[in-house]
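Weekly puzzle thread! Below is a chain. First person to post its structure in token form gets bragging rights.
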Amino acid sequence: MNRFKKIYSQGKMDVVEIWIDTETGVNYVFRKNGYAGGLTPLLDKDGKPVVTP
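Winning reply:
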């Protein structure tokens, strides 16, 4: 269960986190506010997924 690694976090009630998939290198943004939340790939200015080597 070490596939995803959290590299950034801010907030307590209104949370923004960045996670990396250690197998593919793709970065994801997780956003939570109250009881709602969502996860999406982090995209660069050209709309392509950000990949960490």
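Puzzle host: Confirmed. Bonus trivia for everyone else. The chain has a mean pLDDT of 95.
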